[in-house]
Design brief:
alpha/beta; Rossmann fold; 2 domains; eight-stranded mixed sheet; 10 helices; 8 strands
Length: 276
């Protein structure tokens, strides 16, 4: 049975699904434009799942009036996660995160490693704070441009087309830009997350220190053909973390939640191995 729940803390509201039964609890974090529903494939797997909606997704909210000049910081987000763990009586848990959810997962790892039993990322965001996507979000000029593009998204789409022709952008990234700028709702969500999450910057050095210090099984699963978040980005992150540059690479693009894609990575999930 899938239960939809919400908790509030200060100006934040976090929505999530709780389902499944078992001795092991899994905290799941979805990607941009996705939802907590993505992880329902774990139902009936003898684990308890807490699948969280990121801010600006589902019913999860954070103050929108401050995202341009005063973006979210981890020290104000962590308390709502800690409240969630208290409400749901969670002492230790496994983490499974996809794409944009990986940014939040890596920060959970940095700040609450003692609670984490295993940690699995699927094509995660947050691997490179210096990428153009992340760097530009911290520049007033580009945020100003994005405000203009919200009113005239065709200008952003034309720019993406030109960038592909000049080989400054990969075609799949262009397709992603076209997708989120295709209607006002998705464009607004993309703008909000791009600006609001810009100060949430995982530290690869800290990640490496934690993995060497705590008994946490750590996995990164990447799509071999993923052109949105490429395998090389994970390899560079691991190198910067001082960890073995070993990733699990599956025959897949960036869509990890088709049934045919789930079949390719489900056997690698640490919290399911004891079931076999």
């Amino acid at each position: 049975m899938f239960q939809n729940k919400t908790i509030t803390y200060s100006d934040f509201k976090l929505s999530y699904q709780e389902f499944g039964e078992g001795n092991e609890t899994v905290i799941c974090l979805h990607g941009h434009g996705r939802s907590a529903n993505d992880f329902q494939f774990l139902a009936n797997k003898k684990v308890r799942v807490i699948s969280i909606d990121l801010f600006f997704h589902g019913e999860s909210t954070s103050p929108t009036e401050r995202i341009d000049k005063n973006p979210l910081k981890w020290d104000e987000i962590q308390p709502i996660f800690e409240k969630l763990f208290k409400v749901e009586k969670i002492n230790q848990f496994h983490v499974l995160a996809f794409s944009q959810g990986g940014r939040f997962a890596l920060l959970l790892l940095e700040h609450l490693p003692q609670k984490i039993k295993s940690f699995t990322l699927l094509a995660p965001d947050g691997l490179n704070n210096s990428s153009f996507y992340n760097w530009s979000s911290r520049r007033w000029f580009f945020r100003s441009l994005f405000h203009r593009w919200q009113k005239k998204p065709e200008k952003l789409q034309n720019l993406a087309n030109t960038a592909v022709k000049l080989k400054l952008m990969r075609p799949k990234v262009r397709d992603f830009v076209h997708h989120f700028s295709s209607n006002p709702e998705t464009m607004k969500r993309a703008a909000n997350t791009w600006m609001a999450f810009r100060k949430l910057q995982p530290n690869p050095t800290k990640t490496g220190e934690i993995i060497r210090s705590f008994p946490i099984e750590f996995n990164i699963i990447m799509g071999k053909y993923d052109q949105v978040i490429r395998p090389i980005q994970a390899e560079i992150f691991l190198k910067n973390a001082g960890l073995p540059e070993e990733i699990i690479e599956i025959e897949n693009g960036h869509d990890f939640f088709k049934s045919s894609s789930i079949e390719k990575f489900i056997d690698y999930l640490p919290f399911l191995k004891t079931e076999k």
